[in-house]
């Protein structure tokens, strides 16, 4: 297979082959067409609004704990030092609040949910997670969505410690679902067999909450 005049031997083709080998121009961003980046019914904001039930708990690092329980091989009860000792990850993602604001390109640092699940080891019967926070808030989502590649247990935003109003010292961020699924001041992750409704899900909001399908409210 050595015909000197095949297009495969042109200068451009060989540079393109080299680019492919080097991964040139790869941004590492998820390929969603630009026109679909903003979900239907959403508008962009530059600031970052604060939304919660109005009870912002003050949590000291000394007393902070994160429990992982339910359908796991190894239940965890982590101190702040234990949590910091887990591999730290950085992710950049957009957030979409059901009240119609979206904010692009948030830089998060913390523990990827996959790295935490690797320690707890979900049992095969685990299909969903119920999250419970220090303010009594709860929310539910499928385990597969909690374990999404870009889901992260955040302790830092834009290079600074996550502030208490946004859920510091630690909150969840699951960028592909409406932001009410991203529990602030997370205290406990319970792996459960079947879906159960959390706080907003019992109050008229959707059990799943996909922004691109506008799953804002429950159907009934
Ligand atoms: N613990 C807790 N987490 C929560 C909430 C809450 O009231 N308590 N509100 C949810 C809602 S409705 C939204 S839109 C986001 C808002 O996060 P922010 O205040 O950092 O913008 O947090 C979510 N996580
Ligand atoms: Mo919200």
Automatic annotation (TrEMBL):
Q: Which InterPro entries match?
A: OxRdtase_Mopterin-bd_dom, OxRdtase_Mopterin-bd_sf
Domain Oxidoreductase molybdopterin-binding per the UniProt entry, residue ranges = 55-200
**CDD domains from the UniProt entry:** arch_bact_SO_family_Moco (cd02109)
Name the UniProt record assigns to this protein? Sulfite oxidase-like oxidoreductase
- PANTHER family (UniProt xref): OXIDOREDUCTASE MOLYBDOPTERIN-BINDING DOMAIN-CONTAINING PROTEIN, PROTEIN-METHIONINE-SULFOXIDE REDUCTASE
Q: Which Gene3D superfamilies match?
A: Oxidoreductase, molybdopterin-binding domain
Under the heading Pfam families, the entry gives: Oxidored_molyb (PF00174)
């Amino acid at each position: 297979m050595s015909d000197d005049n095949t297009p495969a031997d042109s200068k451009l083709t060989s540079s393109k082959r080299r680019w492919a080998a080097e991964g040139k121009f790869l941004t590492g961003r998820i390929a969603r067409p630009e026109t679909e980046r903003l979900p239907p019914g959403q508008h962009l904001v530059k600031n970052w609004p604060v939304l919660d039930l109005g009870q912002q708990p003050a949590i000291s690092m000394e007393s902070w704990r994160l429990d992982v329980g339910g359908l796991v091989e190894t239940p965890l009860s982590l101190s702040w030092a234990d949590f910091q000792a887990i591999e730290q990850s950085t992710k950049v993602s957009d957030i979409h609040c059901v009240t119609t604001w979206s904010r692009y390109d948030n830089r998060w640092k913390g523990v990827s949910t996959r790295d935490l699940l690797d320690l707890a080891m979900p049992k095969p019967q685990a299909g969903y997670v119920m999250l419970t926070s220090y303010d009594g808030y709860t929310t539910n989502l499928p385990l597969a969505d909690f374990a999404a590649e870009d889901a992260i247990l955040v302790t830092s935003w834009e290079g600074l410690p996550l502030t208490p109003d946004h859920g510091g010292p630690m909150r969840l961020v699951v960028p592909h679902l409406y932001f009410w699924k991203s529990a602030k001041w997370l205290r406990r992750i319970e792996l459960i067999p079947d879906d159960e409704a959390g706080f907003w899900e019992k109050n008229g909001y959707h059990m799943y909450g996909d922004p691109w399908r506008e799953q804002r409210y429950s159907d009934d």
